Each structure stands twice: as structure tokens, then as C-alpha cells.
Amino acid sequence: MKESTNQLLKPVTTKRNTAGNLEIGSCDLVELAEKYGTPLYVIDETTLRNICRDYKSAFSKYEKVNMMFASKSLCTMAISRILHQEGFGFDVVSAGEMFTVYKAGADMSKVLFNGNNKSFDELTLAILIGVGRISVDNFFELDLLNEVAKSHNKTVDILLRITPGIECHTHEYIQTGHLDSKFGFDLTQIDEAVELILNSYTNLKLHGLHAHIGSQIFETKVYHDEIEILVKEIARLDEKFNLKLDEINVGGGLGVKYTGSDCPPSTYQIADVIIKSLNESVEKYGIEPPSLFIEPGRSIISTCGVTLYTIGSSKQVPKGRRYVAVDGGMADNPRPSMYQAEYTAEIANKKEDAALQTVTIAGRFCESGDILIKDIELPEPEEGDILCVYNTGAYNYSMASNYNRVQKSQMVLVNNSKSDIIINRETLEDLISHDVIPDRLK
Ligand code: LLP
């Protein structure tokens, strides 16, 4: 079956140029590091547009399909603009994400607002800027949303987020579809929610069911099982309440290749399983084929991004590891310390054919756990070398912090020898711009 971009370790345009340096989007990474400084997030536009097209062509076999991008994986105005140009809607989970995609020109009717504790203000904003669907997560929110909708004299289009009870093999913190989860209605609570919507919440219109089973998923069967449960529930609700639901949203979750040993399925494999399961379940439970929504994040944006660091100090522990420190770490990429995530890297200015050393890449932050990559083989790393860490497009910038009061990194978009800043580096002034010294301390 055709390979898809999420199965690659590096952006599609990555190569060594004649100077021996790595380049992406025909931009020399060493020159980018010099021009913009490091740490630097680099996003390859070609890879991003390729993966969007992979997804669209993989799912084109199902007539009623709607692609959305999970903004939580990387939410910037330029990235949102590209996704919008590629025809994607957005899954957003906060006022900040909603506002970003809105300002980037997204079609708000193709936006879904998710989350397990949306606030009154966020629900109000969603209604005011015309978000297409709100996925209601719990009883409290049903009540709150109905009140907000009533006060604006609006009927709000909703989905119910359900917990299908599926365990997938991924890190415990990024599993979401299992029964003991903070997200969504338990299967046994759906009827009560539907009764409330039909009988009491006159400002809510239910269109379908939504689930998300986890992230960085390598199995395909879990999607098959998820869809069967969603379709079965839709058929059951029709039977019990004479309610025609015509939308199912299967969430995101497809994995990517962080290291050579990761083998994620392709978008084509996932699409085949989802579409086959949908067709079979529709037949089995006798419902009309619903509109299908999917909302991947990581598998769209992860491979497009790399982070460039400058190598600084280095330390050999007697009879122990050799630590090589870079000028970033857990504040620009918290994933290794949070989930023991593994990454692959190369030195941008040194070919792999030089003699290799085993080293551990340490971050610059004041925490022993700030290790970016354990025991990686690299050509002798020296001060001033540029380290390129692959697959940092998803959940790196979006989970970045200002730990140790270090400025967040800049992000550039590369394409056809051009590089454009899409996130400015924070300045020291930015860092203190929200600080206030009360008068009594003056
Ligand atoms: N839809 C819903 C409702 C979600 O909760 C998520 C991710 C997605 C879609 C997108 O999932 P993706 O295709 O990106 O796997 N910070 C973690 C990942 C948390 C994912 C949370 N939900 C990490 O860095 O691995």
C-alpha cells in the first residue's frame, strides 16, 4: 500500500547539500540557525501540504467526509491558514485556539469546540463567532451551554462526546477512550443525556456522536471497534428515541515515526479500516451512512517540524555517560520528560559518515530530567555544532513554557529556498511585559 508522509522520519525535502549541511525546503539549516538564532522551530510547508493531500486522497473513497486539524498539536495563525487553504476545518479546545483559527481566516462553520471543562466565556465566544459544532462532554456542560444559547436566543449544534471503552496501546497519559477517563459520557449515560436534550434543553440540537481513543496509535483495529460502537449507539438511539443522528466524529490519534523502530500505519491504511468498518456497521445496524469527521493533529504536523539547537557544553561522567548540552530542552520540548518520548537527531553541519560517538543530549533547564535524547550516536559533537531534532512539529511549541524565564523559541516556515518567520522569538521585555509591581512595593 502507498506510503504516507506520517510514516517518514524527516520532512520530505530533507537532504544534505553540496556544502555537506542538512537542508529542508531548500534552506540550509546551518544558515537558518545563523540567521534566526537557536533554538529554532522549522516547519516544512511541502511536507505539510503533502500530508494534507495524503489524508484527503485516503478518505476520498467515502463520500461524506470532513477533515479537521486538531489545533492543540500546533496552533499558529500561519499554520491554521495553510490548513484552511487545504480545505481543513479545526478541532479547538480553548478560546485561544478558537480565536487563532478565527483570525487566520478559518471557515468557522467547519470548527468543532471540544474539551471537558469549557467555561461560560468560552462557550459564549463560540456562539458569537459561529463555531459549527460543540462537542458536549458532560451533564454540567449540557446545562451550561443550554443557558448560554438561550441567553443569546440561539440554537446550538452539538455532538455528544462519548467514552467508547477502548484501550489502545499508547502512553497512559495520552489514552482517552478507556472507561475510567475524564473525557466524555460513559455509554451508560448517553440515554439520560439524550432525554435531557430532547425534553429540556430546547436550545441544543444534537447531530451526532464524537469519540477520541488516544494519541500516537499504531494499531488499526481500535478504529474498527470505535466505529462499530458509535454506529451501534446511533442505531440504538434511533430505535429508542426515533432520533436520526447523521454525524460521527472518530477523533484523531494516528501515530508518527519518532525513531527508526516506530512503524505507524499510513493514512491510507487508517482510512481503509475506518471506511470499511463504517460501511459494514451501517449495513449491520441498518442506519443511513452518516457524515464522517476526523480530527488528526500529530500525524499532520509532527513530521513537518524540526528543532535546531546549538551545542554548548559537554561533560564526560567518569565511567558514565557523555552529556552534550544544547541551548533548549524541556521548555521547548517537554515530551521526553513528560512521556519518556524518544527522538532522532543529526548534526546539521556534519555528515553521518564521520566516526560516531554515543552521547546523551541534555537540555539547558535546571532539572535533572531535562534530557532530550538518551544515548544517541552522532559524529563527534562539538561546541557550536547545530543539532537538528526531527519530528518536533506536534506538541512541542504547543506545550512550550517559559520555565527558568527563558524566552519561547522562534518558528520559521520554509519552502522553495525561502524562510519566513511565523512566530517571533520572545524578547526579555516580552517576558516581563505582564509583570506588575504593586504600588506598595515601590
Ligand atoms: N481529538 C481529540 C478530542 C483529542 O483529544 C486529540 C488529542 C486529538 C483529536 C488529536 O490527536 P492526535 O491526532 O494529535 O493524536 N500532548 C500529547 C498528546 C495529547 C493528545 C491530546 N488529544 C503528546 O505530546 O503526545
**CATH topology group of the largest domain:** TIM Barrel
Overall outline: globular
Hey, roughly how much beta strand do the residues contain? 15-25%
Query: What small molecules does the structure contain?
Result: ligand LLP
Which segments are poorly predicted (pLDDT under 50) over 5 or more consecutive residues?
Answer: none
Q: Architecture of the largest domain, according to CATH?
A: Alpha-Beta Barrel
Query: Count of DSSP helices?
Result: 12
Summarize the main sheet: 9 strands, mixed
Explain what you see.
- The chain folds into 2 domains: 167 residues, Lyase, Ornithine Decarboxylase, Chain A, domain 1 (Beta Barrel), CATH 2.40.37; 257 residues, TIM Barrel (Alpha-Beta Barrel), CATH 3.20.20.
- Strands 4, 14, 15, 16, 17, 18, 19, 20 and 21 form a 9-stranded mixed beta sheet that branches. It has an 8-stranded parallel β-barrel with strand order 5-6-7-8-9-11-12-13, surrounded by 6 helices.
- 29% of the residues lie in helices and 24% in strands.
- The relative contact order is 0.16.
- The mean pLDDT is 96.
- The structure holds ligand LLP.
